[in-house]
Amino acid sequence: MPYGSAIRRWSAPMEWSVKVVTPAAEQAPAPALEHQDDAQLVVLAAAGGREAFDEIVVRHRRSVYQVCYRFVNNHEDASDLAQEVFVRAWRGLGQFKGQSALSTWLYRIAVNVCLNKVSLKSLSTEALDAGDRIEDTRTERPGAGLDRRERARAVRRAIQALPKKQRATLILRTYHELSHQQIADILGNSVGTVKANLFHALGNLRRILGSEP
Amino acid sequence: MNHLTPDELIDAAQDVLDAERHRHLDTCEFCGKEVEVLRALLREAAGVEIPEPSPLFWDHFSARVRQAVAEERSPVVGWSRWFGWSTLAPAGALAAVLIAMVATVARGPVPAAPDTSVVEASPDAAVDVWLEDEDWAVVADLLGPVDWDTAGEAGLALVPGDAELAVLSLSEDEQRELSRLLAGEIERSKS
Fold it and tell me: What's the pLDDT tens digit per position in A70-119?
């Protein structure tokens, strides 16, 4: 191209209309965190995404808290344990391979935290209340002389008195409706052991509550 | 027909017993009663609610977790977490402290009367003590080729407070294990 034409082109008045298109802008915008599934949140959180982890906490905090509450039977300890569960989950995100559901993995951490901590700490104030000793309910038949609330408290205390693995099995099966296989994965047992633990847990409950329903 | 096993009783109470074994329940009053007892216990346990926390609790709980997590390092995927400087630096400092402490103990108490004979000191005397023990030889092998200049360039040189920082960064279990190892080494060097 001769110089003259080039100069004419550059000297001519021009109107610019610039549209910057980046590769990211060409893609669909990333969905908000609350619309991402657990697996996506785990990937983001494992890369250091604390907001993604916040969303994980929001989704699972209730069920984790409930597992902990079933173990310790009081709010303060349950909330402390649940917090510990999520801190350990944060530390262990790099090891989570996605072979189980995130909720199952969190249950596993929760059970481990509870089994370790419960053996170190004294039982809850409710369980130590001298006026509510488990033995007091042994001679009662179900519903006889005990109102529903009192009966519920007796059952909670009876569950708390179970050996740890039996308690964990009963809690996960009864209140969180996990399958025997899921419980086996969480506790590191066989399915047969899980069923045996559940059978013995119910037998002990029957003995403690003194009931023959 | 044999009575139901505990596994089968549990399956029956949860309505997942296979059909063939389930037929046993039609004819066995004993097993039927057992299953009913288990069902009733499961129902009763399942019916026990736990108190629902205040609605305000959940936001407070999330904030607590957020704060606790903020004090943690970011999770690192896989084995690479063990090779970051944040791990290697305290580990290197700790290893150096361990070497110095055990070497000091292994030399034994300072004699009351100074030996007047002249002995040429070997710069590797402390290392020789280490190499007598196969366990510690691994550490010596790892750290042996690294001189202080190289360690300093890599950021591994000790500065005041490094050892304390390294120990404080250990978990309770790791601190207990460190105490156990040190106590064992001290005992062994005394004997």
Answer: 999 899 999 999 999 999 999 999 888 888 899 999 999 999 999 888 66
- Measured CA to CA in angstroms, residue B2 lies from A58, A144, A193, A211, B29 at distances of 50, 36, 21, 27, 13
Clarify whether residues A97 and A164 are in a common domain: no
Range of the structural domain that residue A181 is part of: 155-213
What's chain A's length in residues? 213
Taking a C-beta distance cutoff of 8 angstroms, is the pair B100, B140 a contact?
A: no
- In chain A, which among 32-71 make CB contacts under 8 A with chain B? 45-48, 50, 53-54, 57-58, 61-62, 65-66, 69-70
> In this prediction, does ipTM exceed 0.85?
no
Residue A159: strand, helix, or coil: helix
- Single-letter amino acid code for the residue at B148: W
What is the rounded distance in angstroms from the CA atom of residue B127 to the CA atom of residue B129?
A: 5
CB pairs under 8 A between A and B: 107
Using the Cβ of A126 and the Cβ atoms of chain B, whether some distance falls under 8 Å is answered with no
* pLDDT on residue B112: 53
Q: Is the same domain home to A39 and A117? A: yes
Domain contains A16: no
Q: How many domains does chain A have?
A: 2
Distance from CA of B66 to the nearest CA of A (A): 7
CATH number at residue A115: 1.10.1740.10
